[in-house]
């Protein structure tokens, strides 16, 4: 007999999946610094924080290609820019980033409820793991998956489906906590309820234009029942 996922109640959740950039950690400073180093080395003008805020969230390849296009760089520079970006990112990962207010308290609340947690980001997984470690958040997550962990990344539902499998929890009972329409699209495709934070990077759109189960200003404001 198969289980009909639609019949499973969303409340309370059995497991949680958290996005990283813009949800757990404010990483715009790292992106601005790394892109600045790369562009300067290539003799191109640098980009600012508002540009990165609009562009981030769809993986490094998208960010690097969009940045080159924005500053009038030759698209043929991409492989060189990518290699420089990787080296600089690895060197300064976390230096210009901060855990958002309410995140530690929110993760503690979820841990106290016994909810298993995964982190699913479009950041390369090695950078994601280093960053979580460096900021003292690694211990909350049973699994960390990045933009290079599976064949496709968010907004494709695949990373969330794989995470639900790893967490041993049905998608309908696994909440995706994110900051963008990219997270919501992935969650909708996977059948996961969505919780959205108001303080992240939603490609320049107000977060309440994206349908969600809850909107919160801090992770410790999530209601689980
Ligand atoms: O695009 C990225 O590198 C990361 O974005 P995410 O953590 O919000 O998925
Ligand atoms: Mg995000």
Oligomer: single chain
Mean pLDDT: 95
CATH domain fold name of the largest domain: Rossmann fold
Tally of strands = 8
In terms of DSSP E residues, the strand content is: 5-15%
Strand order of the largest sheet: 5-4-1-6-7-8
Number of helices: 8
The radius of gyration over CA amounts to: 17 Å
Measured between the Cα atoms of the first and last residue, the distance is 29 Å
* Domains (count): 2
Largest sheet composition: 6 strands, parallel
Under the CATH scheme, the architecture of the largest domain is 3-Layer(aba) Sandwich
State the fourth-level CATH superfamily of the largest domain. Answer: HAD superfamily/HAD-like
The outline comes out as elongated
**Low-pLDDT runs:** none
Question: Could you explain how this protein is built, in words?
Answer:
- With 225 residues, this protein is of the alpha/beta class.
- The chain folds into 2 domains: 11-26 and 97-221, HAD superfamily/HAD-like (Rossmann fold), CATH 3.40.50; 28-92, Orthogonal Bundle (DNA polymerase, domain 1).
- It contains 8 helices and 8 strands.
- It has helices at residues 28-41, 49-55, 59-70, 78-92, 103-112, 125-134, 158-167, 181-190, and strands spanning 15-18, 25-26, 98-99, 117-120, 143-145, 174-178, 194-197, 214-216.
- The strands form 2 sheets. The chain has a 6-stranded parallel beta sheet with strand order 5-4-1-6-7-8. Strands 2-3 form a two-stranded antiparallel ribbon.
- Helix 3 (59-70) packs across helix 4.
- The chain is elongated, with a radius of gyration of 17 Å.
- The two termini are 29 Å apart.
- The protein binds 2-phosphoglycolic acid (PGA) and magnesium ion.
